[in-house]
Design a protein that fits this description.
An eight-stranded parallel barrel has the order 1-2-3-4-5-6-7-8, surrounded by five helices. The longest helix is centred in the C-terminal third of the chain and has 17 residues. It folds into two domains: 193 residues, Alpha-Beta Barrel (TIM Barrel); 28 residues. The two termini are 40 Å apart. Helix 4 crosses helix 5 and helix 5 runs parallel beside helix 6. It is α/β, with parallel strands linked by helices. It has eleven helices and eight strands. Strand 7, helix 9 and strand 8 form a beta-alpha-beta unit. The chain binds SN-glycerol-3-phosphate.
Length: 225
Amino acid sequence: MIVMIDSANLEEIKYLFNYFPYDGVTTNPSILKKENRNPFEQLKDIKNIIPKDTMLHCQVLSKNADEMVKEAEYIVEKFGKDTYIKVPVTEEGLKAINILSKKGINTTATAIYTAMQGYMAAKAGAKFVAPYVNRLDNLGYDGVQVAKDIHTLLKNHNFNCKVVAASFKNSQQILELGKFGIEAITASFDVLRNLYIHPVTDKAVNDFCNDFEKIEDNHKTMLDY
Ligand code: G3P
């Protein structure tokens, strides 16, 4: 499963990459706003700190298809052809996704709340489609099920497009999707760290060290032998 960081915070991104080779960074206007800085400079810095072959997903702000296309072309010119242009699935967005896919520009269809939105975006040529799992749960729908339904639709219809499930509150939502074969997720700093941090693992490590200290002097490691 492709695992990406849903953040524009340089410290968070650096911290996470220090411990694990994440596959990419996804941003949106709200995430960029949190950094309280020129968003373009922020994106440039993100691009500079992430490993070379790592994806950067960056969203357009225009609401009109032609403007979205111009924005997308500008972003690709500045950040490279491997950049994924996030386009919300509105009517204009679908049109833009279709134009961009014909121009060979990678798109990530975003702000997806229904399975059919995901299907239509894939059919328009998106490379990724991003259902908002936790936001759906908050609305009283089953976000995990919507993401699964989109995955099934894409497989059954042989689209060259992956679900990148987004908007998570906890590990359980990601686990459910991983078991189902969802190909990509993006999550915030805290949600990503909670995928592997476990207090009982830390306790086990402390117990091992305490046991070893009973037979040896303090803080020895295998390097001391
Ligand atoms: O990538 C989509 C995401 O940023 C939405 O997440 O946590 O704001 O619901 P959230």
